[in-house]
Amino acid sequence: MDGNGRWATAKGLSRSAGHAAGAESVRACMKAAVKRDVKYLSLYTFSQENWNRPEKEVAAIMDLMSYNIRKELPEFHENEVGFKVIGDMDRLTPRLRNEIEAAEAETAQYKDHTLILMFSYSGKWDIEQAAQRYARDFAAAGGAGQRPLESYLATAGIPDPDLLIRTGGEQRISNYMLWQCAYTEFYFTDKLWPDFREDDFNAALDSFAARDRRYGKVN
Ligand code: IPE
Ligand code: MG
User: 4-207: which CATH architecture?
Assistant: First the structure.
């Protein structure tokens, strides 16, 4: 979800106002995803690198996270969407962690559609934490019954993304799901995230539907 800051600056607003506006696009895309029966919609909300932004902007994003979880809970129920957050929760305040866990628990019964916020997440962090836990289990059991590395990723149990959409004009992966994107299709658009709505989401899905996925094989 890139382009919140530029969207706000162009309108003479603070970057934080851009993040607030971006929340509207989250709701629009969540609803569009349910309509199109997309089972998992994961959104790169805040990266490990984003912790290095100015303190004021980080604080605003944390507040928005709190505020929007509370505000969107009725929407999750109405749309029967399960809510989930994936990332390094150790870096969050206990209060925000509690709010996240409560919202996850409250929507856990909705299995058909899941909205995942990738928060305090990065692909390298994920692989590293998986490798550490893998090594610990390996050392404890001498490799007996060792589960694959993949099952230690923070996204374990969730299918790899079929499609990755990046808004805001940049064409890079920015430390997103590095392992999980091995065969993901990419879609780039110049639209800034706060301007990205249902029609744009559908256009990305339509582009995806026309792709020829071969997974390294010959058809
Ligand atoms: C995306 O918008 C939101 C976050 C990364 C938190 P940006 O804040 O990156 O917006 P630009 O790229 O500066 O316009
Ligand atoms: Mg950006």
Answer: 3-Layer(aba) Sandwich (3.40)
